[in-house]
Design goal:
By secondary structure, the chain is of the alpha+beta class. The protein has 4 helices and 7 strands, in the order βααββββαββα. Helix 1 runs antiparallel to helix 2.
Length: 157
Amino acid sequence: MNNEEKVLFKGSSSPRALALTFASLGLVELVIVALAFVLTPWVLVLLLVPAGLAGWFLLLLKSRVYEVTTQRIRVSTGLVTRRTDELELYRVKDMTLVEPPLQRIFKLGNIVVQTSDTTNPTLVLEAIENPTALRESLRVAIEECRARNRVRLTELE
């Protein structure tokens, strides 16, 4: 058997997940521009606030990186201090694909992974592009990982 670890997916949540947030901040900017015409041009300085918020939300989104391999899932988070959590695939008990309406419009979805890991019993890969294909690849990798490690899940009722 081949024990070489291969990367199935590496990336962040899609920025399209923030579409509603960006649209709202755009409306705030339009209001600020309208106020500048009515009041004083100095009001335009306030445009920095929604622009800064949009940049901050995007930076937070991109600071969380998912790496799904044939043996584990890694989630790295943090801007200044980086934290990486790992989950061995043989610990996965169940997966669910959740596609909220706004994400479905942009062909995105969340993969919710239920595990037997005590520190991370539920892991969510948020706003992933082409989530159905990743979930299927992950399902195959989980079965191969269980077979390789001779692990079987038992369900107690």
